[in-house]
Write a structure and sequence with these properties.
The protein has 716 residues and is mainly beta. The protein is built from eight helices and 29 strands. The chain has one domain. It starts with 6 loop residues before the first helix and ends with a strand.
Length: 716
């Protein structure tokens, strides 16, 4: 959506009017909480920039670059954003520099919804859309609607399925009169990064167990792997690379951490049992439950430890160009998986920066990331060496080759809720909400088998004074086998955190570092989406099969503030507190304009404003909520009792964009001048039986719609 005035300023003015009781009569703000099959805004213009299967160049050939499926993260690079990089030294950041009228965008493509074809069943929903497209192009010659598919046709389909995920890199331009954005098909450098071996990525800081092969069976160079997959959200580095997060990779070739049920119960016999060191099975699974591993072509099955990383994409380089570090005499170009941060179901990454959105000078590089699973954790990477002004891009990138990884332990968190502080005087009362006045106290724990400084969180219950390294190596600690070395530790971070008793969180999704927070102090904002299943450990951090299911259906947003907020690399502790809590109306008929839930992607305006999108599909909430983009009011002038305030709005979320039914509102991203907000409409109508969305197309027979799913959109 686009405006001739910065969008945050318009929204903030309307919030201020609402708070003071001065909103013009008849103005719908916040937007009504209703489900529709269209995009609604508070008056902005909007247009679809690209949708699934749209060509991104002038070619309409089946193998030409096309917009992928189910888009998530967006990053915009305004033209000439790095024009002030003298002699190659890193300077301006793409966050707030460059053109706001033309530029390049990166968009993640996470997965395809609904059922894929098998030898005994036809595809449905989005998978049928792809099958029909391939049939129309002559790539598939079978009857794609039939319930019997030859394995050869299934294999062909899998190969093209791989091409729909990953990420797209293309140029867009804005019409100066209509303000509409469109793809520039003539641009040179358009590329698709996907799950085939056409995309090659080097893993740095973690050693994969076996040499990987390309799609023809030829060995790849050491620690180079084929493709990226499960790309959910991500981050934009201050030096102009994209970090894309590989999330649910267990669905492609199999899970590496097989010892945990979906309810966080430990499963024996999976190589994690006590009494011995953990043993990992990286062999790809080939059952029909694996989207890619089920291919009959053994050359195209991948080891499980090839995926599950934060991936740094060098977008101007060819997808086949894997990273060669300047530390090893390389050119510092190409793509890498950041093995120094280990493997989890990564949601995103965010960088600690100064108020100018540049790296903090003379300090180590700091990256935060979140593991989006029930009981997942938040991590912080601190490079071993500092960034110093004058460094080239290759030198800055080399800083990520080595460093320390920390996990956030939210000490005192109530294990029954995951969002309140434990109240020992009333242990079943639901806990105490952490506030900025009375926050929770957290600490960063170094994840290393040689850590002799930090006590394991569950040491008071299992062995007072036991250090993290000793607990990890112990073959019986907390009923889990020993983790003998750093490489094994990085492969199974979720298990390692359970072993240590690190506080379990309610699906931490997006994290965003806010260097210009309204409080005046830099903070990290965290979207906790929800958690309605048990925790693995009890309040003491000890594994317990009787832990109750959590009841957080609606999620919340927290803030973390480092003890050294302007130098987060120096911080070993932090405070945490809640800034917003989601809720669901009792029924569709209830007039609940501020009802929202399941926060997912966050966005920070250049002046520190906090925005978020939601992922609470109406099917999970009885159609009582619309997924949308929200502005979170953190202006203390709007608190109750403040002068002139009629309707206190501090801590309220204002819906100013609503997405079509049964879709996520993902990837919000502003242009540098804040006059355009891009966001993705992911999987509208994915429940294609109960919510047969046809947006943005109009069709008379939605039941057989080809289901072209829209994605990147901008507003007024």
């Amino acid at each position: 959506m686009t405006s001739r005035t910065p969008i945050p300023e318009i929204v903030k003015k309307m919030v201020d009017d609402y708070a003071k009781g001065q909103l013009a009569e008849g103005v719908e703000f916040p937007l009504d909480n209703k489900i529709t099959d269209t995009v609604r805004t508070i008056g902005f213009r909007h247009n679809v920039v690209a949708k699934w299967l749209d060509p991104l160049t002038t070619s309409d050939a089946v193998d030409a670059p096309r917009f992928g499926a189910n888009c998530d993260f967006i990053a915009f690079f305004g033209d000439d954003w790095n024009a002030d990089w003298e002699s190659g030294a890193v300077n301006s950041s793409p966050m707030n520099a460059g053109s706001s009228r033309s530029g390049w965008v990166w968009v993640n493509h996470e997965y395809i919804s609904n059922a894929y074809p098998t030898p005994e069943s036809a595809p449905t929903g989005q998978h049928m859309t792809l099958a029909r497209f391939l049939s129309k192009k002559g790539t598939l010659e079978n009857d794609v609607t039939a319930d019997v598919w030859d394995q050869a046709d299934v294999d062909t389909y899998i190969e093209w399925h791989k091409k729909q995920v990953g990420g797209a890199w293309f140029r867009i331009v804005q019409d100066p009169l209509s303000l509409k954005w469109s793809v520039d098909p003539e641009a040179e450098g358009v590329a698709r990064f996907d799950a085939t071996s056409d995309t090659k990525v080097r893993v740095v800081g973690y050693n994969i167990q076996r040499i990987a092969q390309d799609d023809r069976g030829a060995d790849l160079p050491e620690n180079v792997v084929p493709g990226i997959a499960g790309d959910c959200s991500g981050g934009l580095s201050p030096w102009g690379t994209v970090v894309t997060a590989e999330e649910n990779v267990q669905s492609y070739y199999g899970d590496l951490e097989t010892a945990w049920s979906s309810s966080n119960r430990f499963k024996a016999g999976e190589g994690f049992d006590p009494g011995a060191n953990v043993t990992l099975n990286v062999e790809p699974q080939s059952t029909d439950s694996q989207r890619f591993g089920r291919t009959s072509d053994v050359n195209k099955r991948r080891d499980r430890d090839n995926y599950g990383f934060l991936v740094e994409i060098d977008p101007t380089q060819d997808p086949s160009k894997f990273y060669n570090s300047a530390n090893s005499g390389g050119d510092g170009l190409g793509h890498r998986k950041i093995g120094t941060m280990g493997r989890v179901r990564w949601e995103n990454a965010t960088f600690a920066v100064g108020a100018d959105w540049k790296l903090i000078p003379n300090k180590p590089v700091v990256i935060y990331g979140a593991n989006d699973r029930r009981s997942g954790r938040i991590y912080k990477f601190v490079s071993s060496q500092p960034y110093t002004p004058g460094m080239t891009r290759a030198q800055v990138r080399a800083l990520l080759d080595d460093g320390d990884l920390y996990v956030a332990h939210f000490a005192g968190l109530d294990h029954q809720t995951g969002i309140t502080l434990y109240d020992a005087s009333n242990p079943t009362g639901g806990g105490i909400v952490p506030t900025v006045e009375a926050p929770g106290q957290g600490r960063w724990i170094k994840m290393s088998v040689t850590n002799t400084e930090d006590d394991a969180p569950n040491a008071p219950a299992l062995g007072a004074g036991t250090k993290v390294g000793a607990a990890l190596r112990d073959q019986n600690w907390n009923g889990i086998g020993g983790i003998p070395d750093e490489n094994t530790l990085k492969a199974i971070l979720f298990t390692a955190c359970n072993k240590l008793g690190v506080a379990e969180l309610n699906r931490p999704e997006d994290l965003e570092y806010n260097p210009k927070d309204p409080s005046g102090t830099p903070r990290v904002y965290v979207a906790f989406t929800n958690h309605t299943r048990p925790a693995a450990n009890n309040q003491d951090g000890v594994m317990d099969e009787n832990t109750p299911s959590r009841t957080d259906r609606d999620g919340s947003i927290f803030a973390m503030q480092e003890v050294s907020p302007f130098a987060p690399s120096d911080s070993k502790t932090f405070i945490y507190f809640r800034v917003w809590k989601g809720y669901t109306p009792a029924s569709e008929e209830d007039a609940e304009p501020f009802a929202a839930g399941d926060p997912d992607n966050l966005a920070i305006g250049v002046n520190g404003e906090v925005f978020f999108g939601t992922d609470g599909n109406p099917g999970s909430t009885g159609r009582t909520r619309a997924d949308a983009i929200y502005y979170l009011d953190l202006d203390p002038a709007h608190k109750e009792g403040a002068e002139g305030i009629v309707n206190p709005t501090y801590g309220q979320a204002f819906r100013f964009i609503a997405s079509p039914g049964d879709s996520e509102a993902t990837g919000p991203w502003f242009t540098p001048d804040q006059k355009t907000l891009f966001f993705n409409v992911q999987h509208p109508g994915s429940n294609y039986v109960e919510s047969p969305s046809t947006w943005p197309q109009e069709r008379t027979r939605p039941a057989i719609l080809p289901r072209t799913i829209p994605v990147l959109k901008d507003g007024e």
